[in-house]
Amino acid sequence: MMIRLVVLLQLGISAAARAAEFVGGPYLCNPRMDGMTVGWVADAANAGEVEYGATEAYGKKAAITMCDRIVLAPGAKSERFACRARLRELTPGITYHYKVSGNGMNGERTGQFRIPQHKDPLLIVFQGDDYAISDLDVRFVEEKVGRPPDLLVDMGDTIQHGGDFYDFKHQLYRQIPLVLAEGNHETDWPDKLASPHHLDFEGRTEDKPEQVVDYGAARWVVGPYVKYSDDFTAEQLTWIEDQLQGTDRQWKFYACHHIFFSDGYHSVLKWGGPPEGQSRRASVWPLFMKYNVRIAFNGHDHVYQRSFPIDQNGGKTPEGTVNLDPSIGNSVRARQSPWMARFLRSGDDPKTRVKGVTYLYLNGDQAKVEFHTRPLENAKLEDFKPFDGFTFTPTRFNHDSLVPAEIPTGTAPARPPQP
């Protein structure tokens, strides 16, 4: 009897030891008007499930739909598995509560979200290039606009060289769904061992990471992924045009990682071909203008830079498209182009480096973009300073987008680093 009791106790201890622990998350991704994916990272495979509903009583359950082993960075202490569960048949306008727990998972983590209705105002914030926004940034935007953000759009390279994208600490990732473009650093591990799990959505394949996100009054065309000086293929251009013309959404935006128009150093590097973005903008920019894509968002250059509304040749026009890199970093300015309206790099002195937050607010047939900076460290709400802002409608830009900029001190052209 005693031997049997000891064995049972040992089995119980062993079973308890095998309970999976949270490593990161939960986080929201792949938003649609009728569905949402809840993702989390555990130290064991296929652990956890999601309860959700219109109240904290939940009432519905969603099992894991995908779970992938994450290739570990050097020095990692445990296995990591990216688990996702798809919540389906959701209704816009309802606030949903959810909880990740059970199914072999130790403990629980909760969150909530609301899918906007088609005509609701829509607030979007941005990040990218190893430059995640903070709780403070989101709090500032909430107070500035008077409502919480509905969407977080990431321009890629948030994962730098296999880093921990999933180790989310901030509550905001549990409440603001992510739309993510693929950057060149998400897949730069040898032999593609580390796939960008955070980009997973139904229908995605390794060769086709592009997606379309209809959310509220806006359609986001994300991708296709084209890097460095490469151009779109005929098939990719056809896909882009199909997505831009096949929607009743009032607002249309394009998001990708690699630039079209830039004064940053990537614009002059060859990377085995013509200057980056030159070929792509010649082929796709006419489509943007034809289908009223007001802004093409991208990253890669590690600076905040915003063009005037322009045509494919860089000519200013109120009916043009703005090229906007919403990040800010410690890169360089390689040239000063007549089509560049605003440009800001963080600077080299650690004491004066800044971060910033960019947001887009859509309300009826009016839209505005604002970019505010703050100190890199120990910032408070009162430390945010406006640097850029402009307004537009679904079909044209207002005069404030065409006002020439005063270039801040410290952003003069510099010799770009070599590839």
For the biggest β-sheet, the strand order reads 12-13-14-15-17-16-18
**pLDDT averaged over residues:** 84
Kindly provide the name of the CATH class of the largest domain.
Alpha Beta
Percent range of helical residues: 10-25%
Largest sheet: 7 strands, mixed
Count of spatially separate domains = 2
Strand content: 25-35%
Radius of gyration: 22 Å
From the coordinates shown, what is the CATH architecture of the largest domain?
Answer: 4-Layer Sandwich
The first-to-last residue Cα distance is 71 Å
Our count of helices gives 4
**Secondary-structure-derived class:** alpha+beta
Morphology: globular
- Number of E strands: 21
**CATH topology tier name of the largest domain:** Purple Acid Phosphatase, chain A, domain 2
> Any idea what the CATH superfamily of the largest domain is called?
Metallo-dependent phosphatases
Spans where pLDDT lies below 50 across 5 or more residues: 4-16, 189-195, 409-419
SSE series: HEEEEEEEEEHEEEEHEHEEEEEEE
Give the helices and strands, then pairings.
Elements: H1 2-17, E1 22-32, E2 35-42, E3 49-53, E4 60-62, E5 66-69, E6 81-87, E7 95-102, E8 105-114, E9 122-127, H2 135-145, E10 151-154, E11 178-180, E12 211-215, E13 218-222, H3 234-245, E14 251-255, H4 278-290, E15 293-297, E16 304-307, E17 322-325, E18 340-344, E19 354-363, E20 366-375, E21 385-392
Parallel strand pairs: 9-10, 10-11, 13-14, 14-15, 15-17
Antiparallel strand pairs: 1-2, 2-6, 3-4, 3-7, 5-6, 7-8, 9-19, 12-13, 16-17, 16-18, 19-20, 20-21
Helix pairs in contact: 3-4
